[in-house]
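Risk mitigation, structural track. In case the binding assays with adenosine-5'-triphosphate fail to produce interpretable data, a predicted complex structure has been prepared as a fallback.
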Amino acid sequence: MQQLLSVQDLEVSFANRRVLRQVSFSLAPGETLGIVGESGSGKSVTALAIMGLLSWPGRVTGGQILWHDDDLLSLPPDAHRRLRGSAMAMIFQEPMTCLNPVYTVGQQIAEVLMLHRGMNKREAAEAAAAYLAQVGIAEPKARLRNFPHELSGGMRQRVMIAMALAGEPELLIADEPTTALDVTVQAQILDLLQRLQAETGMAMILITHDLGLVAENAARGIVMYAGEVVETGGVDELFVSPAHPYTQGLLRSLPRWGEQRDVLYSIPGTVPRNLETIPGCAFADRCPVATEACQEPQIMRQVGPAQTARCWAAKAKQPILEGGAAECQPPTK
Ligand SMILES: Nc1ncnc2c1ncn2[C@@H]1O[C@H](COP(=O)(O)OP(=O)(O)OP(=O)(O)O)[C@@H](O)[C@H]1O
Ligand SMILES: [Mg+2]
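Fallback model:
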């Protein structure tokens, strides 16, 4: 199938510090992909690179980002800007990152409609109210006159989603869209995103550090660690038979329903900051099954029909898991 987005060997550096290396994945039209990983693993930088929103001194230093058949990295900045807000849109954890405090909600949604959809002022005002209604905001006409600070966190999140939808995007990137919200509102926003996706057919990249959200909302996931993709697969594969010791550790650190544990498992150690000093696997110093082979650069290996992992041990997944890697398997009781 023709891919909507294809990221190939993407590399991003901030000044001389490389923060992404060999990031590759693709997304079909209408598909939902989850990107999961600890803080600092490169999830947002990947999204910002796709959107062309990396701020100096951040820049793409290698690889390709194909949008349909166009290489986004060789598009003139103007053309990339036109795609942003129309073909592709992004929503953030904190709505105030993209809402302007000095304009009303109505003015901000209308601006997208006039800029990207060529509507006049009156058409845009009417359509803006319809978008607010679509994202579940009551009395949308009255809300158009509100400034962002007059709305609750959940309402602001809905407004940001309405603004994103106003450009009729083929891809919506949601970067931790619900982390700042309480659990009930969180569930409402995720339900809303799923409903809108079904209605509009847009593809979605859901970025989160919560494996549970990926399991519930995405068909496929990629796991990032220290600026690299360490595992990819369908959510069933990632959750039932994770191949990379890091994914296994992440799963093991999830609380389990009905399980009595005084202390939750946490992966020992911290994410390395400087990729340049690590020629081999970036997870090796935290990995319970690391050997000398991990000091060598690791390639992505096919470990299942639709599952890949960046770990030499994953090549022979079964024998390794039956041996030392059983240590980092999710507990069975
Ligand atoms: N503006 C910046 N200047 C310098 N380094 C940056 C900048 N933004 C991100 N980085 C670095 O890039 C790396 C990846 O950061 P990124 O924000 O993508 O992580 P993340 O996976 O989104 O984490 P979180 O879950 O905390 O949002 C980190 O090491 C971070 O320090
Ligand atoms: Mg982030």
